[in-house]
Amino acid sequence: MKRARMKDGQDNRKTDGEVVHLRREIGLLPAVSFIIGTVVGSGIFIAPKGVLLNSGSVGLSLLVWAMSGVLSLFGALCYAELGTSFTKSGGHYTYLLETLGPVPAFLRLWVEFLFIRPAASSYVSLAFGRYVVEPFFAPCAAPTALVKLVSVLGVTFVVAVNCWSVRMASRTQVTLTFVKMFALILIIIPGVIALAKGKTENFQNGFEVGSITLDRLPLAFYNGLYAYGGWFYLNFVTEEVINPNRTIPLAIIFSMVTVTVLYVLINVAYYAIMTPAELLLSDAVAVTFASRALQGVAPVIPVLVALSCLGALNGGFFGSPRMLFVGAREGHWPPIFSMIHIRRQTPLPAVLFMYPLVVLMLISGEIYQLINFASFSRWFFIALATLGMLVHRYRFPHHPRPFKVPLAIAVTFTVVCFFIVGLSLYSDPWNTGQSCALTLTGLPVYYVTIYRFRLPRRFRHVFNYCSKQLQILLEVAQQEVQTY
Question: Transmembrane stretches, by residue range (predicted)?
Answer without folding.
Answer: 26-47, 59-82, 94-116, 136-164, 176-196, 216-236, 248-273, 293-313, 346-364, 370-391, 403-426, 432-451
